[in-house]
Amino acid sequence: MVIKTAKDLFTHLLSDTNSAEKQITKALPKLARAADDPQLAEAFKHHLEETQGQLERLEKVAESLPDIRIKRIKCHAMEGLIEEGEELIDATEKGPVRDAGLIGAAQKVEHYEIATYGTLCALAEQLGYTEAKQLLAQTLEEEKSTDDKLSKLAERNVNQKAG
After folding, report:
1. Cβ-count burial of 130 within 10 angstroms (0-12 exposed, 13-18 middle, 19+ buried)?
2. What is the maximum span of the chain, computed from C-alpha positions, in angstroms?
3. CA separation, residue 162 to residues 91, 102, 149, 151, 158 (Å)
4. Inter-axis angle of helices 38-64 and 130-153, to 10 degrees?
5. Rounded to two decimals, what is the model's pTM?
6. pLDDT tens, 90-143?
7. Which of 124, 119, 90, 117 is nearest to 105 (CA)?
């Protein structure tokens, strides 16, 4: 896809984000199984449900804009972040140290998503895509909330056990 306009960029980022979210839905069950801390495992399961809703929201964004179609592309950045998480799982034994690493790996994903959804929101606003911006902003807030929950879980529990 050749990107020449803000609309082209929006379409590309929307498609890339769709790919990223689909990859996350496959990775989160693995993270939940790899976690030792029950609260962490539950956080991953909860975020899987949220992510499935976020995918539905991306479809609504595309449906709300008749001239936008989500393309089939692969988000290589998310692929790399997930691969890092898998390498961490392979390199650690189940327990507090792995859990601390899983939180770090998950937060890398969340920070990537926060940046992506922030950009999509800004472009949607610039392009006058009011409904799309509202839908994307809802997902952005969920990603920020997940990042905050992971930080609190690390600070209150997991990192102390790993230390």
Report:
1. exposed
2. 53
3. 15, 12, 18, 15, 6
4. 170
5. 0.93
6. 999 999 999 999 999 999 999 999 999 999 999 999 999 999 999 999 999 999
7. 90
